[in-house]
Backbone:
């Protein structure tokens, strides 16, 4: 498992926990309920799923071949490598 996949998994699990806690969150004295937490967590999960599907599609279609950071980048004053 790659480090990026692990980070996505942790973020998604955190969003699920926040949504569950938001559902069980009772009204606080100031009138704040858990609804904003649930809505934010669900928006994150839907967006994450959509970006995940798009990433898989691009990977399978070979549309995007992204180089790791630092590779392929040259400074304007660097001589071309032979």
Residues:
């Amino acid at each position: 498992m790659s480090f990026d996949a692990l980070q996505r998994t942790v973020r998604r699990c955190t969003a699920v926990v926040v949504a569950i806690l938001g559902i069980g969150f009772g009204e606080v004295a100031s009138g704040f309920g858990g609804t904003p937490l649930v809505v934010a967590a669900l928006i994150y999960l839907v967006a994450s799923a959509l970006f995940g599907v798009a990433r898989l599609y691009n990977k399978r279609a070979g549309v995007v071949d992204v180089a790791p950071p630092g590779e392929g980048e040259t400074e304007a004053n660097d001589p071309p490598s032979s």
About this structure: The helical segments are 3-24, 35-61. The radius of gyration is 20 Å.
